[in-house]
Design a protein that fits this description.
Helix content: 25-40%
Number of helices: 6
Strand content: 15-25%
Shape: globular
Largest sheet: 6 strands, antiparallel
Order of helices and strands: EEHEEHEEEHHEEHH
Structural class: alpha+beta
Distance between the termini: 73 Å
Length: 222
């Protein structure tokens, strides 16, 4: 039996694919993904992202478009390529005093320099998505004093990722899209007040992957 025609004066609704950061919090149906700058077809999960600083959003990019943005890292402009490096600082000094200064209500948070606002911002995963936490200058100073990674951050595109777990803190510099992937995974799996066993297991798996990718910066750390 054929479907009934739409009512007069109305057009059928066609679901639109998620854009920006929503791609990490919305289940994606099988579809052909394209570069959001030039329209070229993308290679599934392997494509890179750019940060649209005007919209404060991530956009998908093909190889040539992302390489074009790579030629001027940190330069002023609407689109900035997200780097792929993951760094670790095993000798950091992010301790209980630093966490108290940050006033983050959960055990995982990430920080990046927002070039539009002209300051660093702090966010953490929650059932509602990425939640911003107030970050004043003295609190950020405690972080920059505790790890050299904070000074290595590329604006908008890289984040300092901290996790307080089992009596210690892990400290990484990661691509900012990796943080929003974590936000999406936690939002999809969160259950109850504390997230539930599935979300905690996924969090452990995520940080295990980060550890495998992480390398120390060249040169000695203070």
């Amino acid at each position: 039996m054929s479907a009934p025609p739409p009512a007069a004066g109305r057009t059928p609704h066609t679901p639109q694919p998620p854009t920006g950061l929503r791609r990490f919090t919305t289940p994606r149906p099988p579809r052909e993904e394209r570069c959001e700058l030039c329209g070229a077809q993308l290679d599934g999960e392997r494509h890179r992202h750019l940060v649209d600083t005007d919209r404060r959003a991530l956009v998908c990019a093909c190889g040539p478009c992302s390489q074009l943005m790579d030629h001027a890292p940190g330069a002023a402009g609407r689109f900035r390529a997200v780097p792929g490096r993951v760094l670790t600082d095993p000798r950091h000094r992010v301790d209980d005093r630093v966490w108290e200064a940050l006033r983050v209500p959960v055990s995982v948070a990430f920080f990046f320099r927002n070039s539009v606002l002209g300051r660093p911002v702090a966010l953490y995963p929650s059932p509602a998505g990425a939640t911003e936490s107030e970050l004043d200058e003295p609190a950020w100073d405690t972080v920059t004093d505790a790890t050299r990674l904070a000074a290595l951050l590329e604006p908008d595109t890289e984040a300092l990722l901290l996790r307080r777990h089992d009596g210690r803190t892990e400290c990484f510099l990661v691509p900012v899209d990796l943080c929003y992937e974590l936000v999406g995974r936690m939002r999809l799996r969160w259950q109850g007040f504390d997230g539930g066993a599935e979300a905690r297991a996924d969090l452990d798996a995520f940080f295990a992957q980060v550890r495998d990718r992480a390398r120390e910066p060249q040169g000695s750390l203070p």
